[in-house]
Each structure stands twice: as C-alpha cells, then as structure tokens.
C-alpha cells in the first residue's frame, strides 16, 4: 500500500459512485464520493509526510503508461479531495432526487466522474493517460454546465466550455507530440533549454485555456455561472486549478526560463486586475464570483512567475515566497470560493434567482448564510485574520523583496496593481453582500427565504472553519508547503518560511482582536439591548421605500464609469423630454469585452468567409465515402510516386 | 530594557489618548482662520464622553453587523497603530507588517461600508459607494510609498522602513510625502475631497456613511475618525523626520510635526473649496503618479 495505490482506490471509488448514480439512491453515491475525496486527501497528506515520489509503470500498455505521485501532485490533490467531498455532501440537499427528478442521476454521475478524472490527471505522467483524463474531465464538465439545458444561455455556456476545452486539448496534443519528437517520450520528462520555449508556450496556451487567465477566460464565467452550485464549487476549486497544475508541472520539468517567467508575471497581473474589474460590473451573483476566479487565478500565476524569476536571479527567499504564496493560494481559493459558491447556492435555493438587483435584506432571514458569506468575502479580499491574507501577504512580500535587487526592480510595478486589485475586490464584495443581504428586500423573491438545511450549513461551516484556521494559525500548513516548494525550487535549501517570515504572526494579533472586541461589546452591551428600534433615520425622511435603496449597479457605477474605456458598459438611458415624462428605465450591462467584443465578431467573420466550404459537408453518407475514397487514392498515389522518386534517386 | 518599555508605553498612551486633541486643534485652526473663536480645544473629548452616556436608537432594518462595525473599525485602527511607533524603538513588528498595517485599515473600511448598506438608506449607500471608489485609488499611492520605503531602507519592517535615512533622495522623499498628504486628506475626509462639517449634504462621503449611528456607537466612530487622522499624520511625520539618535527627542519632534500638519490641514480646509466629485479620483490618481515618480527616482539613484 502506498499513496499512489490509495489515490487509485479513490479514483475507483469515484468511478464506482459514477456508475452507481444511475441505479442507487443519491445518498449512497454521495457518501461514496465523500469516501473518494477523503482518500485523495489522505493520499496527499501521506505524500507530504514521507516526501517521496511514487511511480507505477505499465510497460507496453498505452504506450508505456506511467503513473506517479509527488508533493506537487499532492498540492493539487488535497483541495480536489476536499471540494469533492464537501460538494458531494452539499448536493445531497441541493440537488436531491426529489427536487430534480429529470437529471439528478446525470448530474451526480458526471460530478463523481469529473472528480475521478481530475484525480487521474494529477497522477498521470504520460501523454496518453493525461490527455484521456483531460478529455473525460471536459466531457463531464460539459454535461454539468448543461444540467439546466432548457435554458438557451446555459446551452450556449456549455458549448463555449466544450469549444475552449477542445482548443486546449489541441494545444496539449501539440505539446506532448513536440516533447516526444525531441525526447522520444510521450509525457512529462526533463526538457533541455534549447526547445523549452516552444514547450512552455504550447503549455501556457493549452493549460491557460482551462485555468482561465484573462485573455483565455472565454469559457469560465459562463460555465461557473450556469453549472449547479455544488458543481460550480468543484469547477472553481479544482478544475481551473488543474490548468495551474499543468503550468507548475512544466516549470518543474523545464529549466528556468526568464522570458516565460516574465510572461507569467504580466499575464498574472493583467488577469488579476481585469478579473476584479469585470466582476465589478456583474449583476448576476454567480457570474460575479466566476469573474473573481479569473482574478484569483491571475494572483496564483503572478506568484508562480515571481517565484521563477527569484530562482533565475538566485534569490531563494523570493522564490520561496512566490511559490509558497501561489501554492497556498491554490488551497485558499478552493476553500473560500467553495464557501462563496455554497452560500450563493443557498440563496438560489431560497429565492430562485441570483440577480443582485432583485434580492436584498436576506440577512435577517438567513443570518448564518450572511455570516459565512462575510467570512468568505473577507478571505477573498485578503483581509486579516483569514487565509486569503496569508497567501496574498507572501506574494506581496515577494514583490517587495524584488525592489531591493536592481535586476528585478521592474517587477515592483505589479505591487500597486495587486493592491488596486484587492481594493476592487473589496468594492465588489461590498456590493455583493450589500445587495444580497443588507437593507430591505427589493422584490418578492425573498419572501420565503430561510437558512438552508443543516447538512448544507455544515458544509459551509467546514469550509469557513478551515479558512479561519489557516488564517489564524498558518503554521499548520507551512511544513507541507515547504515540502512542495522545495521540489519546484531545490535552491531554497534550508530556508524556512517559519523562521524567515513571521508574517504568520497573525496568530496573536487575532487573539488581541478578539479580546478587544469582547471588551468593546461588554462596554455598551446594555445600551445595545435597551436601544430603541426605529425606522432608518437617514436624513429624516418619513419613509424609506426599499426601491430608493442603493442598488448593486449604482454602488459600483462610479468605478465602472471611470474604467469604461476598458469595460465598455452598455447603458440604455431614458430620454426625458416633455414636462411630465413617462416612467422610464435605466439599464446598464457589462459584458465580456474579449469574448463579445473581439472573439465573436472575428469568428463570425471567419464563418462568413469560409462558410462556402460547408457545402462539402452535405450530410449524405455516400459523399463522405467518396471523400474517403479520394483520400485513400491520393495517399496511395503519393506513396507510389514517392517510392518511384526514391528509386530514381 | 526598561527604557524600551517606557517608549512603548509612551507610544501606546499617545495613540489611545491624543487623537481627539489633534482633531480639536484642527477645528480650532479652522475656526481661527474663519475669524471665529471656535469650540474649545478639548471639545472632541467632551463629545466622545457625552455620546458614551447617551441612549441609542437603532434602525430596525439593521442587524448585528451594524452594531459591530464601529468597534471593528476602532479596534483595527488601534491595532494598526501598534505597528506605527513614534521612534525606532517600540513594539517590534515583523517582516511584512507594513502590509498588515494597511490591510487592517482596509478591514475597517470594509465593515463601515457594509454597515452603511445595512441601513438600507440611499444616502448611506451613496457614501459607501464613494468610499470604495476612492479607496481603490488611494491604495495605489500607499503601495507606491511603501515600495519607495522598501527600496530606500532595504527592509520590510515598518519600524525599520521609517527609520531609514533618505540622505541623497530628498526629491523622492518630498514626492512621497506630497502623495501621502493627499491620500491622508482623502482617508480622513477633509476638504477638498470630503466635507467633514455638513453631514446632511449630498456630497459627503465619510459622514454620509454613519448617519444612522447614535450614542456610544457614534462616539466610537468619532474616536475612530480622530485616530485615523492621528495615524496618517504620524506616518507623514515619520517620513519627514530625519533619523536622530535620541528616541525622546525624536518623539517630541514627531509630535511637533504632527501639530504642524494638522494646522496645515485646518488652513487648507478654510481656504480651499470642495472639488467636483468626478474629479476626485483623478486627483488621487495624480498623487499615485507623484509617488510613482518618487519611486522611479529612487530606482535610478
């Protein structure tokens, strides 16, 4: 028995769950998935504990397939296992057999299948296995996004997801084919610096499309917004992380490459900033969270890039901070984004909408969801003492350390943009929480809202608890991170996060915070108890109609206006002409500039230009046989003439 | 060792008890400029004490968050103050505490904005909206100032960063101080960015957010506002001051410069008119540009 076998067991359990989904009740499948998730986490911890690479070769099978698990795989296996388990539990209530009789089996099966194929990706070291599991994962993802297939928007999102995945597989095929051409090994293997540029570029395109960095994010907002809530958590917590895993794996096998590291930093900063900016303009809560995933992926990428730069310039402390920050952010993002998607799911369950401008005042009816949403949002914003702060602090410190080395001082430009990203994230989280939970209800949608059932609440407690735990006591995860980072960057030697950077001093500060808060509360507890309850005073208005409240759109309108050259918001302003104008409406909408503004027009133009070729694809099977015949004849002719030419020579 | 405790104690007591005095000085300076005698110097203390004894009225729209927000703000401000001693000797801090310092201030902002939205009042929503908008741009400036400091001092500890000698980098020092002064005006809600006197006007930012707080909660907010003023003044004073050997002398000089800064703010308040709201982000972004220029100078030098 070793961690690799344990992971394979987990994958088997997941596949079993997927198979059982069609015949057994939902609960059994879900608990099987939980078992699979726990096995994955145990395998991850085990690898960290003994710090070894376990290899399982299959000579002669699937072009000499090889499975292997090392600390880098374990870094990604851990959040995968955690989110698989929690989302399976969440789905018991949120996607129950009774509420979704038409597609509950499909969704459950595909969820389990996707989790298993993702685990397979983290241990598959050869191209065939990797690409196969990548394809399985994508197909399962397609079915999950299309779960609500009666909605045309959901269908469109699923198709876009499928298209981007195909594109990414195309690049990955090219990547592996190229590696095979140079090294005679179809899989991950040590690459020499002469052709590292091609490998890294292909990898960045292939994996980037799945991770969803800014210019490659086409599939991400739609797929996260339309998938069932528990699947959204898995999408953002694990699926997009696999793109990061691929890039980290390439960093491991390639010699340090300065231009690539620089590209990672630039892409990371652009992605972090633009993701947060586009999130500001969203009106749909889940879409807003999805855009934040784009932003957070950028932050992770920035950490990886700055770590690699530190390695190239022989600054082990920068490398350690950058890599450790990036890897910890992978975990943190899975934790707090999972929490936020779960709370979004509770709201959708209670109100059947996640349109920010239709909700409001939910905090009174769903106090527990409000509490965990605030915890999740504060972690997303990187506020102390929560986990997001720790990883952001390390990445930020890596940037600040760059300032002191003349050859890396240019990287410092990323720090102010990162600070602004954090501020933008705060703005959009204030907007989301304000519009969802605070104030008075804006429509009837919230009438019957209440906190979700106990099982769903416990899932939120679990995620939130780990968020607080890592934030308050980061030493807990330090040894694990150091093990993983020392694989990525052997140069760090015995440099330790624990002794060098006590940015982890948040522990005692939290204690101080809590004690002080307790004192303040006691100080005027009696007054609060006795306080008279009145309607909101505001500026002395006699009534405060809920319609007059600040809406989600108006809260960030100033920022959207300032960045309108980039965001290109579409607004329809009412025209008030007569003395007594008709009732009018003001609408504003921020779309995806890259997808709607650049890519779609380009693709449409392409379709127009080469549309004539479609006549070839008539749908008549006889014609297709004819094409094949022509192709075979052509190939034969080529062979024949080729061999004749050879003889002539 | 005992001297070290003495410095810490002095810094801590100043942080706890001096902030309202600086607010009083500012108001006095403003009143004098306008030809009034003005409220007594200690008026902010009287206000806080009186408000602490008053009863509270709480909006029925709000929930627990609204009641906790002011004390979270005050606590984070005080904790942040612990990392900003007046001299080289003080509470030690840790590597990276300068980021901790500013994120703590952001925690306060986050919760104040949420509490404002909690009331469901349009005016408080307006204040929250403006606050988060301006914060995006002030963060830029603050981060650039920190980059300058990190470059000059070669350290990532706020106490050490502020004790660095700028020797031949006077130009960038001046630019950083100017940028930081503008951001301090924004953060503390002073003219020309925000009106601190007429809370009911539509153009308020800070005061618009706290319409509905009353009694002890309002006292906490007023104390928090004066603490924020104190912290920003202290930060600028530490930036301006050259490093001197004697910690007590340094502390005295520090307080003196803070006094001058507060008087300058009072002067500015009574001579400048309010900036158009749409121009405010531009001005803050301009302050970021100043600091960026300062940073480039340190890199070149």
Question: How much strand content do the residues of chain A show?
Answer: under 5%
Oligomer: heterodimer
The biggest beta sheet of chain B is recorded as: none
**Structural class per helix/strand content of chain A?**
mainly alpha
Helix content of chain A: 55-70%
Q: Tell me the domain tally of chain B.
A: 1
What spatial order of strands do you see in the largest sheet of chain A? Answer: 1-2
Note the beta-strand portion of chain B.
under 5%
Radius of gyration of chain A: 26 Å
State the total count of DSSP E strands of chain A.
5
Total count of helical runs of at least 4 residues of chain A: 26
Task: Provide a compact summary of the structure.
Chain A is mainly alpha-helical and 649 residues long. Chain A is built from 26 helices and five strands. Chain A is globular.
Polypeptide structure, described:
The complex is a heterodimer of chains A (649) and B (301). Chain A is mainly alpha-helical and 649 residues long. Among the domains of chain A are: 257 residues, no CATH class; 33 residues, no CATH class. Chain A is 69% helix and 3% strand. Chain A contains 26 helices and 5 strands. In chain A, 55% of the residues are buried. The mean pLDDT of chain A is 87. Chain B has one domain.
């Amino acid at each position: 028995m070793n961690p690799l076998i344990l992971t394979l067991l987990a994958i088997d359990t997941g596949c079993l769950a997927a198979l059982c989904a069609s015949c057994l009740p939902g609960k059994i499948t879900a608990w099987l998935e939980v078992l699979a998730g726990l096995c994955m986490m145990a395998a991850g911890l085990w690898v960290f504990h003994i710090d070894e690479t376990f290899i399982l070769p299959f000579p002669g099978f699937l072009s000499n397939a090889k499975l292997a698990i090392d600390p880098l795989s374990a870094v990604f296996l851990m959040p995968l296992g955690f989110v698989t388990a929690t989302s399976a539990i969440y789905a018991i209530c949120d996607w129950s057999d009774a509420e979704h009789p038409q597609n509950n089996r499909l969704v459950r099966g595909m969820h389990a299948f996707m989790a298993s194929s993702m685990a397979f990706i983290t241990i598959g070291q050869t191209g065939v296995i990797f690409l196969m599991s990548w394809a399985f994962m994508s197909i399962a993802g397609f079915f999950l996004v299309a779960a609500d297939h009666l909605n045309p928007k959901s269908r469109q999102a699923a198709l876009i997801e499928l298209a981007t995945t195909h594109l990414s597989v195309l690049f990955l095929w090219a990547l592996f084919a190229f590696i095979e051409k140079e090294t005679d090994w179809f899989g991950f293997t040590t690459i020499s610096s002469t052709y590292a540029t091609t490998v890294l570029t292909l990898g960045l395109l292939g994996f980037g499309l799945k991770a969803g960095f800014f210019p490659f994010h086409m599939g991400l907002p739609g797929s996260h917004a339309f998938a069932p809530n528990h699947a959204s958590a898995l999408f953002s917590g694990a699926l997009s992380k696999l793109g990061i895993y691929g890039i980290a794996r390439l960093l491991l096998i390639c010699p340090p490459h300065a231009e690539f590291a620089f590209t990672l930093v630039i892409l990371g900063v652009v992605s972090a900033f633009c993701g947060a900016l586009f999130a500001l303009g969203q009106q749909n809560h889940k879409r807003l969270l999805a855009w934040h995933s784009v932003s957070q992926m950028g932050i992770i990428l920035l950490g990886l890039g700055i770590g690699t730069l530190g390695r190239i310039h022989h600054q082990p402390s920068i490398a350690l901070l950058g890599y450790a920050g990036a890897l910890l952010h992978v975990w943190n993002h899975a934790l707090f984004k999972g929490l936020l998607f779960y709370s979004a799911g509770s709201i959708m369950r209670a109100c059947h909408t996640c349109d920010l401008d239709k909700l409001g005042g939910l905090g009174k009816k769903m106090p527990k969801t409000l509490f965990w949403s605030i915890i999740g949002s504060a972690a997303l914003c990187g506020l102390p003492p929560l986990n997001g702060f720790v990883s952001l602090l390390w990445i930020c410190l890596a940037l600040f350390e760059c300032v002191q080395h003349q050859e890396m001082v240019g990287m410092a430009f990323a720090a102010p943009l990162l600070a602004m990203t954090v501020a933008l994230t705060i703005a959009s989280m204030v907007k989301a929480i304000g519009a969802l939970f605070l104030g008075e209800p804006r429509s009837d949608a919230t009438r019957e809202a209440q906190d979700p059932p106990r099982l769903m609440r416990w899932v939120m407690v679990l995620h939130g608890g780990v968020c607080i735990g890592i934030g308050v006591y980061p030493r807990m995860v330090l040894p694990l991170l150091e093990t993983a980072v020392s694989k990525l960057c052997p140069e760090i030697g015995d440099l330790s996060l624990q002794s060098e950077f006590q940015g982890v001093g948040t522990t005692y500060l939290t204690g101080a915070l809590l004690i002080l808060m307790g004192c303040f509360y006691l100080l005027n507890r009696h007054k609060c108890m006795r306080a008279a309850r009145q309607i909101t005073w505001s500026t002395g208005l006699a009534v405060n109609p809920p319609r007059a409240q600040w809406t989600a759109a108006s809260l960030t309108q100033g920022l959207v206006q300032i960045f309108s050259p980039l965001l290109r918001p579409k607004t329809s302003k009412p025209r008030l002409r007569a003395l007594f104008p008709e009732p009018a409406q003001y609408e504003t909408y921020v779309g995806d500039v890259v997808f709607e503004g650049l890519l779609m027009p380009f693709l449409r133009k392409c379709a127009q230009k080469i549309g004539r070729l479609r006549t070839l694809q008539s749908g008549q099977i006889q014609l297709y046989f004819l094409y094949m015949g022509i192709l075979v004849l052509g190939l034969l002719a080529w062979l024949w003439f080729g061999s004749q030419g050879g003889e002539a020579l | 060792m005992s001297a070290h405790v003495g410095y810490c104690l002095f810094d801590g007591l100043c942080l706890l008890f001096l902030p309202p005095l600086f607010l009083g000085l500012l108001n006095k300076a403003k009143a004098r400029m306008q030809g009034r005698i003005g409220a007594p110097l200690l008026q902010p203390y009287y206000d806080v004490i009186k408000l602490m004894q008053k009863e509270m009225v709480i909006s029925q729209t709000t929930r627990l968050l609204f009641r906790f927000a002011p004390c979270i703000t005050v606590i984070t401000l005080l904790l942040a103050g612990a990392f900003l001693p007046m001299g080289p000797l003080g509470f030690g801090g840790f590597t990276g505490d300068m980021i901790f310092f500013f994120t703590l201030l952001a925690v306060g902002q986050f919760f104040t904005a949420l509490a404002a939205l909690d009331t469901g009042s349009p005016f408080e929503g307006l204040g929250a909206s403006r606050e988060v908008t301006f914060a995006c741009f002030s963060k830029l400036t603050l981060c650039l100032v920190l980059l300058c400091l990190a470059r000059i001092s070669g350290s990532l500890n706020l106490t050490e960063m502020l004790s660095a000698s700028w020797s031949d980098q006077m130009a960038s020092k001046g630019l950083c101080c100017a940028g930081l002064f503008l951001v301090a005006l924004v953060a503390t809600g002073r003219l020309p960015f925000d009106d601190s006197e007429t809370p009911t006007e539509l153009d308020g930012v800070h005061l618009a957010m706290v319409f509905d707080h009353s009694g002890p909660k309002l006292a906490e907010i007023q104390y928090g506002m004066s603490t924020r003023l104190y912290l920003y003044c202290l930060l600028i004073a530490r930036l301006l001051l050259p490093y001197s050997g004697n910690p007590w002398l340094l502390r005295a000089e520090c307080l003196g410069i803070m006094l001058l800064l507060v008087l300058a703010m009072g002067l500015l308040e009574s001579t400048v008119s309010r900036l158009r709201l749409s121009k405010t982000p531009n001005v803050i972004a301009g302050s970021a540009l100043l600091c960026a220029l300062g940073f480039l100078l340190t890199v070149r030098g």
